[in-house]
Write a structure and sequence with these properties.
By secondary structure, the protein is mainly α. The protein is about 65% helix and about 0% strand.
Length: about 350
């Protein structure tokens, strides 16, 4: 699950800035690249591409990969506390899917000339960003359902257009990711439907979780288009197909009827249908809170990173054993060939 692409530079940056053109690219190669983009073609790893395009993709795909694997943590906390065997099996499958998404995406980013070690190092040292939604706690079981319904739901809105991204390996990875995200969204919604047929205490838990997550999900689409100068370049390159504000609007319009069926209130007094626009109007998002969380000061940033680093360190023996085994196999093959 992931959104907020393009708008979040890695490192200590506070606000997005217009990316300077880093160098002059050879005009002939540039013309060929532009023609491919104009024809809605795909750029493949062996193709020439401008450096800024490569860098943008490395940043976006690695941030996306980090978001998938950090996204395993808030829900992973609930595997041992799932209310039934069925819910536990579903949750394990979902969390495992997110790990798989991370792996496809690290592989896609590696085709652009970066290494997995480099990307993981950037994540573990706090230099790389990931989706800020995972820096909030999961306080009760309803949060798990709401994450599926709203967080994975927002991620799908953002990721479906990425299936048409101009960079081939990223676009192809997204096709399978989106199918799995769709299951994630539905399992969350279904879990909430069941809770909403339960006791008043269960209904209150669902409403409380919706209240805490709604605005953070709207912020997941990233700052308004007017404050996102990099988006224009992303659109030009065929990486971003639909603007952040348009995606956010689609998400609001799709979610309002689902909330009605579920029987919960979305916590926004300004949320209402606008006949003239043919869309729902909605209230102001707290961007100060969003930036505070992106820049490391959300309620769970430190804990998430520490858990992630510990998991990586605890898994060192597995990586070492796998490498030793591969080395032994290689030696055996060489000996047999000799
Ligand atoms: Fe995912
Ligand atoms: Fe997901």
């Amino acid at each position: 699950m992931y959104t907020q692409s393009f708008n979040v530079p890695d490192g200590a940056g506070q606000q997005p800035a217009v990316k300077p053109v880093l160098r002059t690219e050879p005009p002939e190669l540039m013309a060929k690249f532009d023609a491919c983009i104009d024809a809605d073609g795909r750029i493949e790893p062996q193709d020439w591409m401008p450096e800024a395009y490569r860098k943008t993709l490395v940043r976006q795909i690695s941030q996306h990969a980090h978001s998938e694997i950090v996204g395993m943590l808030p829900e992973g906390n609930w595997i041992s506390r799932a209310p039934s065997l069925k819910r536990k099996a579903i949750l394990i499958a979902k969390v495992q899917d997110e790990g798989g998404h991370g792996l496809y995406l690290y592989s896609a980013a590696e085709t652009l000339g970066t290494s997995r070690d480099q990307m993981l190092d950037a994540l573990h040292t706090g230099k790389a960003k990931y989706s800020s939604i995972f820096n909030y706690p999961t306080l009760n079981w309803a949060d798990v359902g709401v994450i599926g319904w709203l967080v994975d739901g927002a991620a799908i809105m953002n990721q479906i257009p990425l299936c048409r991204c101009s960079y081939g390996p990223y676009a192809r990875a997204m096709v399978r990711v989106c199918k799995e995200e769709s299951f994630h969204q539905r399992q969350g919604y279904e879990a909430l439907l069941v809770m909403m047929q339960g006791t008043q205490a269960q209904k209150d838990m669902v409403q409380d979780a919706v209240n805490r997550y709604w605005w953070k999900c709207l912020a997941m689409f990233g700052p308004p288009d007017a404050d996102s100068p990099n988006s224009v370049q992303g659109m030009r390159w065929g990486i971003k197909r639909i603007s952040s504000d348009d995606l956010r609007q689609k998400f609001v319009d799709a979610t309002v009827p689902q909330a009605k069926v579920l029987g919960v209130t979305l916590p926004d007094p300004d949320l209402k249908w606008n006949e003239e626009r043919g869309h729902h109007d909605y209230g102001q998002i707290d961007w100060d809170e969003f930036w505070a969380t992106v820049n490391g000061n959300g309620p769970m940033n430190k804990e998430r990173l520490a858990t992630r680093v510990k998991a990586y360190n605890d898994g060192a023996w597995v990586r070492e054993a796998a490498l030793a085994h591969a080395h032994k196999q290689q030696q055996r093959t060489l000996k047999e060939a000799a």
